[in-house]
Amino acid sequence: MVSPASEKSVRQMYKETRLAQKRLDTLLRFLPDPVFAFTLNNTVEYVNPAFERVFGWKLTEIRGKNIPFVPDHLLEQARQGMKQLYENRTVMDFETQRYTRDGRLLDILINGAILYDEDDTPMGQVLILRDITFEKRMAKTNRIMFDISNALHTYHKLGDLVTIITAEIQKLVNVEGAFILLADRKTDELYFFSARFKDAASGNKFKKLRFPADQGVSGHVFKTGKPLLIPDISQCDFYLRRVDEETDLVAQNMLSVPIKLKDRVIGVVSVVNKLQGQFDDTDTDQLMMVASTVALPIENTRIHEELEQSYTDLKILNQAKDKVINHLAHELKTPVSVVDAAMKLLEKKLAAKGIRDEKIETIIGRARRNLRRILNIQFEVEDLLKKKQFTAFHILTRLIDACVDELALLTEIQAQDETRTGNADMMTGVRQAVEKIFGPHRLTRQTIHLDQYMARHLERLAPDFAFRRLTLETGLEKTHLVHMPEEILDIIVTGLVRNAVEYTPDGGKIQIQVFSKNNRPTLVIQDYGIGFTPEKLRLIFENYFTPPDSSEYTTKQPFEFNAGGRGFDLLRIKLFSERYNFTLDIDATRCRFIPADMDTCPGDIRRCRFCTTPDDCLNSGATTVTLIF
User: Greatest CA separation found in the chain?
Assistant: First the structure.
């Protein structure tokens, strides 16, 4: 029998044990960190409520089972951690990562110990898993935001700045690809300003892409101004598939946030393919933080670069203006001087022969007066280009003077016709003459076989540059018909061929091709000449395309090397393209031996000190003009 004292002692021990158990249960229930107890074969024996809350698994569904929450890439680390636990009986502040039930990857800090029975035999383990994801992310975010903040003041070029930001975003969110897309307000498009994906070559493929600002995931974010998380791209109806098709991207998941200023969205930050786990709200918050930080510096840098470019273009345009003024002065003064001299000579010849006729003197006086007027016009053109102001009075006076003289001349011609024909209606004849000379010309569209037309037109032009030593190669394929006035096509082709000839040195080559591109007639004129500098290429279709200096063409005829022409042929063609609905594109590479505008070409490959064979010239510079009708 058990003595009363012993029975009391047992009851006391039982009571104390139950109290201790109750206290332990209370402690585990309210402990904020997850506690995980498992047997030697790694099956779950106990998890506390904090574990259920953080990781998502309930004790009732995982008791006696293994929890599949160790990432594959950390399996070996987990084995080494268990080995350390058994060797030391405890593990302290072991940093690693574990998955939650819904696929999120948490950073955790493990503290644990081996559980032993009365015989000091291991019977299981107990671990405390503290979630340090937020702390880690905040530390990482602070570090990366510090790097980005430094970059904002260190890099003054937008390209360099955005490249650094993209690289930091890729590290911050731990993704395969990070992209910054900016908006082109003129075309209402988005374009990849910076792309960080795999390697540099992969990223460069994205920079060629543009798409309407209301398309795709990024377009949706740009238009709504709200972040968007796509956990599964295959289930997204509006994802822009052409991005994958035109690059080596295979998007699986995606997160996009707007780059927003106070009054508008200027772009989008997009990241794809989370490397570990799934995108979550923390990723969204981090990306929004970066986007809001860089929005104003990106916009300021872009405006600064646009102002710098505008200033550079303005300087180039000022130089172009000066050249145009000199060019116009040359074009007007030279023929006027020749005609004026001819009129003086004619007066002397008439006087020497004793011919005095009042009508002839009137005609000569009128001609010389108008020659002086042309010279005055030359000075007025120069002043207009310098933006000097003129009153309407002087302009109207000159206009009336011109009309009076012109009408007087037409009346005199009509009076002579009246004498011959007996036509008494002089004013009707004058009106018909005015309409014939000054009236608008009506151009009718014609149906043109481009290959046949080019063959005929090149044959007509060939004698004009037969004195040049050039190789002309043609490939004229049959295409769909072109519908436009043949007079306009004559102007276009003549101008392009003349420019090609005048910018190609003797011994060089010109290729002219006609073919179909996407079922559209296409004309390509390529010369292997001196090409254009990047500055000239930007201006070539603008209001002023600079002709050569006056000194370069004083004695040159059309189609001679560097003859220069009037400098406005390409501008006229650009205007025609808008009127007659064809596209015009030009691509040029400046000769590497004469990279600057002030560098000169001798005009003959045989006289070029840089070229030992014609191929040296053919491989150094070129200009390609493409017309698609």
Answer: 172
